[in-house]
Amino acid sequence: MTSPMTPEEVDALARKRAGAKMGWYTHALVFTLINLYWFLASDLGFGYKTWSPKLLLGWGLGLALHFIAVFVLGGGSSLRERMVQKERERLQREQNRMP
């Protein structure tokens, strides 16, 4: 079992996780605003002939991967915590085998 974290460690981890989430929210906002601009500029004819959904799809894939990294695999997800725990146990077993 892991030892309890100190208040400073809890604060540092909380700040790191909040920063990662804010990074994703910023990414999503920029994605939305830029793609909306590209769509409207194309639709209203501001020098763009056609708006390409390829840009939306490519960047959207990046945004989806960012989401997975932060909210699914990031700190706090049970999947990540289980993987970390398994690695800790493996490393401890390896250390116990060493003379």
TrEMBL record:
It holds the Pfam family 2TM. It comes from the Bacteria. Keywords: Membrane, Transmembrane, Transmembrane helix. This is 2TM domain-containing protein. Residues 14-87 form the 2TM domain. The chain crosses the membrane at residues 22-41, 56-79.
